[in-house]
Specification:
- The chain has 172 residues and is α/β, with parallel strands linked by helices.
- 45% of the residues lie in helices and 18% in strands.
- The chain has helices at 39-54, 76-96, 105-113, 120-129, 137-153, 165-168, and strands at 3-8, 13-19, 26-31, 59-65, 99-103.
- A hairpin with a 4-residue loop joins strand 1 (3-8) and strand 2.
- The longest helix is centred in the middle third of the chain and has 21 residues, at 76-96.
Amino acid sequence: MRKLLGLDLSVARTGWALAAPNEPLRFGSYPLPSTGEDIGKLLVAFDEWLKIKIAGEDIAVVVFEAPILRQGRTHITTARKLMNLAGHVEFICSQLGIRCAEQNISTNKKDFTGNGHAEKQDMILMARRYGWDVKNSDEADACALWMGAVLRYAPDQAPRFKLGALGAVRAA
C-alpha cells in the first residue's frame, strides 16, 4: 500500500508524519533556519529537506495544513513565507506526480480531537492517546493530518480512527 505524508508547515519548524495506512506511523519535526526577510534562503532549506524526506518513499498523497493568516496579526514576511512553503509543497508534488491536498486547521482539529478549536496541548494529548510519542505540537498536527488523509484517501484502512476521540482511548 502506498504512503501518506502529513505536513504541518511553519516558518520555524515543520512537523511531518509518514506511513502507509496499514504501517506504524513515523513522525518528527524539522527546524527551519531563521532567515529574516530572506524568503529564498528559507525555501532552499525547505526544498532540500522535503526532497530528502520524499526520496525513496512511495507516496500517494501529501496533505498539508493551510497557512494560518490572521489579519492584523500575521507579519507580511511571515505570510509570504507560509504561502511560499505551501506553494512549494504543491510544486514538488506536481513535479513528482503525487496527489496533494490542503487541509484547514479547524477541520484537522475536529477530525482528530472532535473539537475544531482544540488547543496545541489537546492535539499533543490526542496523539499520545493513539500511542504516538510526539515531542511538540508540530508533530501532533502532522499526525492529525496523516490520520485525516487515512480517513479520506484510505477509508478501508481507517476503522481505528472512525470513533474519533473515543477510538483513541487505549485499553488499560
